Amino acid sequence: MKVYEKAPAKINLMLDVIRKREDGFHEVEMIMTMVDLADRLEMEEVPRDTIIISSQAGYIPLDEKNLAFQAARLIKDRYDVRKGVYIHLDKKVPVAAGLAGGSSDAAAALRGLNRLWGLGISEEELCTLGAELGSDVPFCVTGGTAVARGRGEKLERISNPPQCWVVLAKPPINVSTADVYGKLRAAELKTHPSTSAMVSAIERGSFTDICDNLGNVLESVTLQLYPEVLQLKEIMQRLGADGVLMSGSGPTVFGLVNKEAKVSRIYNGLRGFCKEVYVVRMLT
Ligand SMILES: C[C@](O)(CO)[C@H](O)COP(=O)(O)OP(=O)(O)OC[C@H]1O[C@@H](n2ccc(N)nc2=O)[C@H](O)[C@@H]1O
Ligand SMILES: Nc1ncnc2c1ncn2[C@@H]1O[C@H](COP(=O)(O)OP(=O)(O)OP(=O)(O)O)[C@@H](O)[C@H]1O
C-alpha cells in the first residue's frame, strides 16, 4: 500500500516576539496560513525495518538530518512500529526560505505514517510529536489558519483569510533561523504588530485591513543583514502588490494581491531581479 500527502508552504501574516525565554527559544505570537505551493510525499512500506528517503531535489539531506526521516523515526520509536518505510519527497517548496518546507514535510510524514500503519493517533497527539521536531511542525500538522503562541506550538484556529493571489520571491541567499532569532534584541523592539487587529481583519474578511496590519519583527534583523531582501520588498511594493512582508525569518518576501490583472505585471517585474518567483493562491 502507498499513501500520499501534500506538504504545503506556510506564510506568516504576522510575527511578533514577546520575549526571549530561559530555554533559549523566543515567546512568539504569530498568525500563519498555508499557500498552494506544496511538496508531495509518497510513503510505502518496505519489508526491512528501515527508513529510506529519496528526492529529486539534489540540495537536501537524505539521511537522519532530513525532517521527514526524523518524523518517521519518532513515530516508529514512540509507537513501537517494527516496520520499514520508503519515503519519496517531491520537493517544490524552496529550501531554507522561511516557508517551513522541511517542517511541512515532517508534518506530512507524521500524518501519512499514521494512516499507513493504521496507528489511530489523534491530531492533537501528532502536534505534540511534531513539536519535538520543530516549532513550526504542529501548525503544519493542522494547516488552515492559526494564531501560534509559545514557541509556535500553541495553536488557536481562526477562519481563513479571504482568497487572494500570493506572489512569493526568494532571493538567492540562505538565512539561518537560529541566527536571526539570535541577533534579535527582543527587549529593544519599539513597535509590535497587533495580533488582535490582524485576527479581526481576517475574521471580518477585510483584505485591505489584512494588508494594513501585516508585520514581522524578524524583518528588523534579516533586512539589516541582507539589504537585498529590503530591496525586494520595495520592488514588490512599487510594482503594486497590496501588502508586502517577509515570511518567517526570511529571505522569502510575499506580496498579497487581490486583482488578477495586477499579478502578471508584478511577476514579470520581479523576474528581472529574482530568479525564484512563484504566483500561488491562499489555501482556503
Ligand atoms: C521563524 C519561524 O519559521 C516562523 O514561523 C519559526 O518561528 C521558526 O520555526 P522553526 O524553523 O520550526 O524553528 P526550530 O527548528 O524550532 O528552531 C530553530 C531555531 O530558531 C530559534 N527559535 C525558534 C523558534 C522560537 N520560537 N524561538 C527561537 O528562538 C532557536 O534558536 C532554534 O534553535
Ligand atoms: N525535508 C526537508 N526539506 C527541506 N529542507 C530540509 C528537509 N529536511 C531537513 N532540511 C534542512 O532544513 C533546513 C531548513 O530548511 P526549511 O526549508 O525547512 O527552512 P525554512 O523554510 O526556513 O523553515 P522555517 O520557515 O520553519 O524556518 C535546511 O538547511 C535543509 O537542509
Automatic annotation (TrEMBL):
Binding site for ATP: P94, V95, A96, A97, G98, L99, A100, G101, G102, S103, S104
Pathway: Isoprenoid biosynthesis; isopentenyl diphosphate biosynthesis via DXP pathway; isopentenyl diphosphate from 1-deoxy-D-xylulose 5-phosphate: step 3/6
GO molecular function annotations of the record: 4-(cytidine 5'-diphospho)-2-C-methyl-D-erythritol kinase activity; ATP binding
InterPro entries attached to this UniProt entry: GHMP_kinase_C_dom, GHMP_kinase_C_sf, GHMP_kinase_N_dom, IspE, Ribosomal_Su5_D2-typ_SF, Ribsml_uS5_D2-typ_fold_subgr
Enzyme active site: K10, D136
Keywords: ATP-binding, Isoprene biosynthesis, Kinase, Nucleotide-binding, Transferase
EC numbers on record: 2.7.1.148
Domain GHMP kinase N-terminal: 66-144
Keyword Kinase: yes
Pfam families attached to this UniProt entry: GHMP_kinases_C (PF08544), GHMP_kinases_N (PF00288)
Domain GHMP kinase C-terminal: 198-274
GO biological process: isopentenyl diphosphate biosynthetic process, methylerythritol 4-phosphate pathway; terpenoid biosynthetic process
Recorded catalytic activity of this chain's protein: 4-CDP-2-C-methyl-D-erythritol + ATP = 4-CDP-2-C-methyl-D-erythritol 2-phosphate + ADP + H(+)
Family, per entry: Belongs to the GHMP kinase family. IspE subfamily.
HAMAP family: IspE
Role played: Catalyzes the phosphorylation of the position 2 hydroxy group of 4-diphosphocytidyl-2C-methyl-D-erythritol.
UniProt protein name: 4-diphosphocytidyl-2-C-methyl-D-erythritol kinase
Gene (name only): ispE
